[in-house]
Specification:
The protein is mainly α. It contains 25 helices and no strands. The protein is globular.
Length: about 550
């Protein structure tokens, strides 16, 4: 009778023994970490863990938890965070790194580790600046939208109210952020489904007789006044706004450090969000293009003021449809959405700022994490930037905000580009050190080629934006003001990189010197392979669904 195979024999046949040491050791280390975290946090009261007692504001000690940030985000939270943050070119690359290296600071830490510390310094500070600008911007937009219902109360009152709401949410730390995101994104998805149905009805001409779309509408606006206004230049001129609007994909990487089950949750969140974005982002924009002409005087930028309450094309569709109450519903969705984005800005900016401090790139006091797992000092600083929203109440407010927008406009493209480069160099270092691809628990679709393709798209987008900064869509040659409003992120990032390089005074990080071992997640390879084998033995349909979702 043949001797029975040990459970780890198949694993050792695939993975080098050095990569797993022994499976038992990995299991023990992972179990000990979970037990230590559960035991430490169980000693704290529920209200302290939720950040609602005075004791919760005390500095967290090493014995409180192995990881200073909480592991309280669930699978459903990660799904909604990934979806709520939209989709970017680096999402799959980020998912692969986040599963293997669950570190505080997300993509910034990967840039420092796999590209160069000076690059990480520049991108980390630029990322913090981006979200510090987003918070007051979203507070202002939410306050302006309130004018749709009441134009008598000062915008400052609503800015104060919304800012106070964000303060309350952050009292509850990561759970407050996760639960609010789950609720707000669910509400937004329901609203988008309603809009898609309404949009289809409008295109088919089935809205009330007193509405604009009471007869078959079709694609008439694509013929007159036409699509792609100002041609290629017009298309390229939207990149600043588009990249700013689609920022947030990297939030799922930041949340990985505070997830309970990232190995299970992150891959599914990354894969599912792609198809959901096609359904919930691309389709609504197609209907907007079919139903709202580009020369509509109500669109943002066509009238006076910072933000007209009817400037949203979604509100314009609601008004034109003649559906009573639908415009109010859309405005409510806008308010919830912008508050969600502002809250995400505090979460993302504070975690990155704390990671910068931990690396020695920011003042040491910013490393303060309290017993509720909140990076307290960094969170307070980010929230204080919300006060910039009051600038809009002054005469020069709109001009100031335009310049602030230009600072952060292209930051998302630099972020996604750095994620792609980080993964390319990580894979190169992994191969150079003789490691097998089978040792990577989650491998992004299309391999390294996908990261190169995404990086090329980012470079083309940045190049196109520089082109329209020099040659405006309206014709003529741009003046200095127009040029820097379109491309101010470039000199800011280069200046920050120079500062980081001067600060480190180290040569460029070569691939051979990249550390791929520190901070790796302890993987239960036996359970991981058993699960993969179970999936491989499923039906063809089940395997396809699993591959895509």
């Amino acid at each position: 009778m043949a001797p029975r195979k040990s459970p780890t024999s198949d694993i050792e046949a695939i993975f080098p023994s050095s990569s797993i040491s022994t499976t038992a050791e990995s299991l023990v280390a992972e179990a000990n970490e979970k037990q230590a975290f559960a035991g430490a946090t169980s000693q704290l009261s529920r209200w302290t863990r939720w950040g609602t007692t005075f004791d919760s504001f005390r500095r967290r000690q090493p014995q409180d938890a192995p990881n200073q940030l909480n592991h309280t985000l669930r699978t459903r939270h990660l799904y909604m965070i990934a979806l709520g943050g939209c989709i970017g070119a680096g999402l799959f690359a980020l998912g692969e790194l986040a599963v293997l290296y669950p570190v505080s600071g997300g993509f910034y830490t990967y840039a420092t580790r796999f590209i160069d510390p000076s690059v990480g310094f520049a991108l980390g500070w630029n990322y913090c600046l981006q979200w510090a600008i987003v918070l007051p911007l979203e507070l202002t937009v939410a306050s302006e939208v309130i004018k749709f219902w009441n134009n008598d109360i000062s915008v400052s009152v609503w800015i104060t109210a919304f800012l106070a709401g964000i303060v309350v949410l952050n009292v509850f730390g990561v759970m407050g952020y996760g639960e609010f995101e789950f609720g707000s994104v669910t509400f937004k998805l329901i609203a988008i489904i309603i809009f898609l149905v309404t949009g289809l009805v409008n295109v088919l001409g089935s809205c009330p007789l007193d509405g604009v779309y009471h007869e078959y509408w079709g694609a008439r606006l694509w013929n007159y006044p036409g699509a792609f206004h100002n041609g290629f230049k017009g298309f390229c001129s939207t990149f600043v706004t588009a990249s700013f609007a689609y920022a947030g994909t990297e939030l799922v990487g930041l949340a990985a450090a505070e997830s309970r089950t990232p190995l299970k949750s992150l891959p599914r969140a990354v894969k599912q969000v792609t198809w959901r974005v096609v359904a919930f982002m691309v389709l609504p924009l197609i209907f907007v293009g079919l139903l709202v002409p580009y020369d509509d005087k109500r669109l943002f930028g066509s009238g006076e003021g910072f933000a007209d309450t009817t400037a949203s094309p979604f509100v314009i569709v609601a008004v034109n449809a003649g559906l009573k109450g639908f415009d109010s519903f859309i405005c409510t969705v806008i308010v919830v959405s912008v508050i969600s984005i502002g809250n995400s800005g505090v979460y993302a900016g504070s975690r990155t700022l704390t990671a910068l401090a931990e690396q020695g790139y920011a003042p040491r006091f910013l490393t303060y994490i309290d017993r509720a797992g909140r990076p307290l000092a960094s969170t307070v600083i980010l929230i204080c930037f919300g006060g910039v929203a009051y600038i809009n109440t002054g005469e020069a407010g709109q001009t100031i905000f335009q310049w602030l927008m230009s600072l952060a406009g292209l930051a998302a493209l630099f972020t996604w580009g750095s994620i792609c480069v980080s993964r390319i160099r990580f894979r190169a270092a992994w191969r150079l050190q003789g490691r097998s691809m089978n040792e990577i628990p989650f491998q992004a679709l299309f391999g390294t080629a996908g990261s190169w393709f995404s990086l090329i798209l980012v470079v083309l987008a940045l190049a196109a934006q520089l082109f329209v900064a020099i040659k405006p869509p309206g014709g003529g040659t741009a003046n200095a003001e127009h040029f820097f409003k379109q491309s101010l992120t470039w000199p800011v990032v280069l200046l920050l990189w120079a500062c980081g390089h001067f600060w480190n005074r180290k040569p460029w990080l070569k691939v051979a010197r990249i550390d791929i071992n520190s901070g790796q997640r302890q993987i239960d390879w036996v359970a991981h392979r058993v699960e993969n084998q179970r999936q491989a033995e499923g039906s063809f349909v089940r395997r396809v669904v699993r591959f895509l979702f």
